[in-house]
């Protein structure tokens, strides 16, 4: 083996190692559970879906404009959604507007679930194929989005919403939008905001 080929033979693994070390080193200090959203600060994706409880009624993006509200992605097959359901009911009892997105579910199952456990939603969109979920960038249910009165997505919370997260993470952001103030800084790896 000639000298230039031998140097290349030994240098290549070293260069690969250095490249990997730089790549991994650049990720130090970042949260690997963070799931950023490209939709933050942008309008709600355009949609035209039937209402869960009224298949003949078509709802569009215009139906989510006009007030600060939450959009909650849920499904009956989602155990985590069942765990967070009492918190959503508590929020609704406090007058917080929530719109449901029933995600990749069966209409009859979802209707029966809400009849049995209570319905915290102003209305639920029936996203049978998951097209709206795909446009939102949903990783899985449950996910909760905070929308401003113009229909722009201002915050995204991934995972089960419990009473503590409502009080410490979502409620301050909701109240800030209602008051026309900037959203608090995001200190949670489960959410992202603008």
If you had to describe this structure to a student in words, what would you say it looks like?
- With 194 residues, this protein is α/β, with parallel strands linked by helices.
- The chain folds into two domains: 1-30; 48-193, 3-Layer(aba) Sandwich (Glutaredoxin).
- Helices cover 37% and strands 19% of the residues.
- It has five helices and eight strands.
- It has helices at 3-26, 79-93, 107-117, 131-136, 163-178; strands at 48-50, 58-60, 69-74, 98-103, 124-127, 143-147, 153-158, 191-193.
- The strands form two sheets. It has a six-stranded mixed sheet. Strands 1-2 form a two-stranded antiparallel ribbon.
- It is elongated.
- The termini are far apart.
- Residues 30-35 have low confidence and may be disordered.
Q: What's the short story on this structure?
A:
The longest helix has 24 residues, at 3-26. The N and C termini lie far apart (59 Å).
Give descriptors for this structure.
194 residues, alpha/beta, Glutaredoxin, 2 domains, six-stranded mixed β-sheet, two-stranded antiparallel ribbon, 8 strands, 37% helix, elongated
